């Protein structure tokens, strides 16, 4: 817990501390460091592109707690560890990463007089360390990239730029946007100040209009899109609905989508990432139309709406509001752009209107504030606050929010910014964006349907508690180090917005005891926030947003990102030491137990889900409980309006907005899109975007039925001559070199004879195991023939090594081979031995396979990286289901994942027979999953635009 010590106000660096925060312990134990409470283990991180087989990253011997998943440790190692791989400067332990960040925050907190005593500072450090170590929360990616390194200490992920109606300003926009992209972040801008193509220049010529300048910015973003450590460039372009060029803006990307279709039909490679897609314009930005209440009322009434000149404000033209709104919906139906932002709603919740209006947002639409500003984010893992008795720990949640908000505010004291203007605004208004992940998992675990009154009430209560507590702590910080610089001129509107939040909290209707308890705590938090803020003001102009939590959500091992529901009921899970499993989400059995199902029923339902991927007709499951297990994808996917209503439930308790795309089926109509956009305004949202399955040419088909229909159409068409390419079999010569190896695995003896081509490439394998004529001997003969023929048809040995090493079955255990001391099965041993005999060192090292001599050389000289055998034996069991890996999931929930699946999205495709409408990851080649208004790759943590 925390409290303040009274004293004179001040916050200047170096003043004598006469007051500060007293910080009590929440999670930690006095005298025990958080690192000493967990078991640490060493792992090897290998990241490959599954499509090409290329190794894109490798680091051996990294150190993580034993309860961190392989995915989380891989993402942290590849994305956040600093220093060149293979050098002494390279980070190799999670301890180093957390210390680098947390100790920097502590030093800054002490330097700027946030703490009442050194003991309070130490407690602050330990509490933050414990929460990060136990995946209770995470800062946004730029913090992990930059804090505590020689690089500029950039902590913000979200930026808003500004551009005026002058060439200097427009060119400066290009430059500033490029600098932000180079750092791996994104920015948004409103171009409505730029004169339209219907207006005259001072020289007498006609203006180009904002859409023409978008071309140059789009090309710049496409060129710099690989900058940064974790994601491609992301940008948002916004135009007001009363701009004379609004129709051209609305149709910009829709026309380009028509061009893509035409070029594809002409034979050009127009897939996402294809070599010809770069010729298409405007593809690097999200576009949004900023609509006013005036326009929406004209739409409701069927009236005309005036488009106004930028320079004079005169009405240049009048358009039918219904027709214009239909054009917005039609374009979004056709290519997912533009999204929509509700200007008057946004500015009605604006805390600093005396400084300026809110005109734009960041690329994912969750951060909305002043021009030339930024916001740093952090997100809590909600499932960490669910007790064993399925009640929400409101006390620990509130105390965690207080600590995190404190740390986020401290970061602004030492942070660097990409431009001077952004730095000045951010330091003056100190915008923060605390949020959360795992809402969908929390609701399911507590027996709430995502699209239900109970689910919405629970989400609203938690969000209100988070925001109320954040503003309470912001007011307490104002008492210690002063309010934000712009508070004095904005005191009344800021207080007005605080009262609006509190009033919205009072309007929540609890459905059951669980959310009633959370709501009671939220009401107390808002009362304290108003009382303290009335006296001291607030330290921060904004406190909360709901971001996508793509990469950091995976870092925290969250099942769901941001405000999203579960993607599916089954997920793909990598195991320590190699291998993968198909596991039913752990929240499913927990939800079933909470709803009163017996253990035998739970196991039967979970086994059914594992086979079918949904709950329809699951044995013993009541139909009224189906809604609890509705997901974003699958047979019982959540209806589009269910997503909109969830956003509406939590929006009144967010300072900024919500990053979320409402997914719609391919069969959705333009009228349905129009209704979604209209209801977004009626329900009080600040921004909304939709995505209709298969509306993008560069995306795969979303449903197997669509494939069948396409196949039927093509068969009915005129038959064409098809040229079929087949691989040639390269047979071995009559006389060829061979090598025979005797081996023992777990007491079982056998022989392997490997024959090779004269140029030394492996061409055949014969295995002898068991008595001649036995079933085992026959199976091994057939297996040998299959492998030999495949090798002669050109299947690389590396492929077999990847697939067959780490398979576990009896006999397993000790071998008599000094190069492979332990083996998990006969197959594991055979293909490790073949790799050692026939693959180059580079090929083997990419697979983590080394000889005894190489391992010894590494120990003596350090010239080779640590190897698999240096990992503790209990972590090398590729398919063992350790308690820390599958938690309490019944045995029926876990089984080997299909070989074609490398992420949960691909696993869902394999189970349901449908194809997910998501892009492929540029780094590892796997299907990505939705995360807010962008996508995140479960395999490597890369995102399509947001952190």
Automatic annotation (TrEMBL):
Coiled coil: none annotated. SUPFAM superfamilies: PFL-like glycyl radical enzymes. GO terms for molecular function: ribonucleoside-diphosphate reductase activity, thioredoxin disulfide as acceptor. Residues 889-903 have a biased composition (Low complexity). Residues 733-837 form the TSCPD domain. Residues 860-903 are annotated as: Disordered. It catalyses: a 2'-deoxyribonucleoside 5'-diphosphate + [thioredoxin]-disulfide + H2O = a ribonucleoside 5'-diphosphate + [thioredoxin]-dithiol. This is Vitamin B12-dependent ribonucleotide reductase. It comes from Tenggerimyces flavus. The lineage of its organism: Bacteria, Bacillati, Actinomycetota, Actinomycetes, Propionibacteriales.
């Amino acid at each position: 817990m925390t409290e303040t010590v009274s004293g004179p106000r001040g916050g200047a660096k170096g003043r004598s501390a006469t007051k500060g925060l007293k910080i009590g312990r929440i999670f930690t134990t006095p005298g025990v460091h958080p690192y000493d409470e967990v078991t640490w283990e060493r792992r090897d991180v290998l990241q490959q592109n599954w499509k090409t087989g290329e190794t894109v990253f490798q680091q051996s011997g990294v150190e993580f707690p034993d309860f961190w998943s392989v995915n989380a440790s891989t993402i942290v190692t590849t994305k956040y560890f600093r220093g060149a791989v293979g050098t002494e400067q390279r980070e190799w332990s999670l301890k180093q990463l957390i210390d680098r960040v947390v100790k920097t925050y502590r030093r800054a907190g002490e330097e700027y007089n946030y703490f009442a005593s050194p003991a309070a500072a130490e407690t602050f450090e330990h509490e933050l360390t414990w929460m990060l170590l136990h995946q209770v929360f995470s800062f946004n990616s730029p913090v992990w990239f930059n804090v505590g390194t020689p690089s500029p200490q950039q902590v913000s992920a979200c930026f808003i730029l500004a551009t005026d109606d002058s060439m200097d300003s427009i060119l400066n926009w290009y430059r500033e946007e490029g600098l932000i992209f180079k750092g791996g972040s994104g920015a948004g801008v409103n171009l409505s100040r730029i004169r339209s193509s219907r207006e005259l220049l001072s020289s007498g010529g006609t203006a180009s209009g904002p859409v023409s300048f978008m071309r140059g910015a789009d090309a710049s973003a496409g060129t710099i899109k690989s900058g940064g450590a974790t994601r491609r460039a992301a940008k948002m372009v916004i135009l007001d609905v009363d701009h004379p060029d609004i129709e051209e803006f609305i149709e910009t990307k829709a026309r380009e989508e028509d061009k893509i279709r035409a070029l594809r039909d002409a034979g050009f490679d127009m897939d996402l990432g294809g070599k010809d897609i770069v010729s298409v314009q405007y593809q690097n930005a999200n576009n949004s139309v900023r609509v006013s209440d005036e326009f929406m009322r004209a739409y409701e009434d069927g009236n005309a709406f005036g488009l106004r000149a930028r320079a004079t404000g005169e009405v240049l033209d009048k358009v039918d509001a219904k027709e214009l709104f239909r054009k917005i919906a039609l374009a979004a139906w056709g290519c997912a752009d533009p999204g929509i932002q509700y200007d008057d709603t946004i500015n009605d919740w604006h805390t600093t209107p005396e400084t300026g209006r809110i005109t734009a947002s960041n690329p994912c639409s969750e951060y909305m504030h002043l021009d030339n500003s930024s916001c740093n984010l952090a997100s809590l893992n909600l499932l960490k606050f669910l007790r064993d008795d399925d009640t929400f720990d409101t006390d620990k949640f509130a105390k965690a929010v207080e600590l995190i908000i404190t740390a986020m505010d401290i970061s602004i004291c030492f942070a660097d910014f990409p431009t001077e203007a952004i730095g000045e605004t951010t330091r003056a208004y100190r915008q923060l964006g605390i949020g959360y992940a795992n809402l969908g998992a929390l609701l399911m675990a507590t027996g709430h349907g995502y699209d239900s009154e109970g689910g919405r009430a629970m989400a609203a209560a938690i969000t209100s508690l988070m925001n109320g507590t954040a503003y309470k702590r912001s007011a307490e910080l104002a008492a210690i180090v002063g309010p934000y610089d712009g508070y004095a001129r904005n005191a009344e509107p800021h207080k007005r917005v605080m009262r609006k939040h509190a009033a919205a909290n009072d309007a929540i209707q609890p459905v059951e005891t669980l959310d009633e308890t959370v709501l009671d705590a939220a009401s107390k938090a808002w009362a304290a926030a108003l009382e303290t803020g009335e006296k001291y003001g607030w330290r921060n102009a904004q406190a909360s947003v709901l971001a996508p939590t793509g990469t950091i959500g995976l870092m925290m091992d969250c099942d769901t990102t941001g405000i999203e529901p579960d993607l599916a009921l089954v997920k793909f899970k990598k195991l320590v030491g190699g291998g993968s499993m198909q596991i039913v989400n752990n929240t499913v059995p927990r939800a079933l137990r909470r709803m009163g199902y017996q253990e035998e029923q739970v196991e039967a339902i979970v086994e059914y889900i594992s086979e079918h991927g949904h709950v329809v007709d699951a044995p013993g499951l009541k139909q009224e409980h189906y809604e609890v297990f509705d997901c974003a994808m699958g047979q019982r996917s959540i209806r589009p309006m269910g997503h909109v209503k969830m956003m509406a439930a939590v929006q009144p308790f967010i300072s900024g907005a919500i990053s979320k795309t409402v997914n719609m089926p391919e069969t959705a109509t333009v009228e349905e899109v129009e209704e979604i956009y209209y209801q977004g305004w009626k329900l009080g949202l600040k921004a909304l975007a939709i995505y209709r399955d298969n509306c993008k040419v560069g995306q795969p088909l979303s449903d197997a039925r669509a494939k069948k229909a396409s196949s039927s159409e093509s068969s009915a068409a005129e038959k064409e001559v098809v040229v079929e390419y087949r691989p040639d079999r390269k047979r071995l010569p009559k006389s060829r070199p061979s090598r025979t190896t005797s081996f023992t695995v777990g007491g079982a003896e056998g022989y392997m004879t490997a024959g090779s081509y004269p140029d030394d490439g492996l061409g055949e394998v014969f295995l002898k195991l068991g008595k001649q004529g036995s079933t085992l001997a026959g199976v091994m003969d057939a297996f040998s023939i299959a492998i030999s023929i495949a090798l002669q048809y050109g299947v690389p040995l590396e492929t077999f090594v990847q697939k067959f090493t780490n398979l576990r079955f009896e006999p397993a255990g000790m071998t008599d081979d000094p190069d492979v001391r332990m083996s998990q099965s006969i197959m594991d041993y055979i293909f490790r031995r073949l790799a050692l005999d026939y693959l180059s060192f580079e090929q083997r090292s990419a697979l983590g396979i080394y000889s005894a001599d190489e391992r010894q050389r590494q120990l003596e000289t350090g010239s080779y990286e640590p190897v698999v055998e240096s990992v503790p034996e209990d972590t090398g069991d590729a398919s063992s289901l350790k308690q820390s890996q599958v938690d309490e999931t019944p045995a029926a929930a876990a089984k080997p994942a299909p070989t074609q699946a490398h992420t949960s999205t691909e696993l869902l495709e394999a189970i349901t027979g449908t194809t997910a409408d998501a892009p492929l990851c540029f780094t590892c080649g796997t299907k990505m999953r939705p995360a807010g208004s962008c996508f995140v790759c479960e395999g490597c943590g890369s995102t399509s635009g947001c952190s």
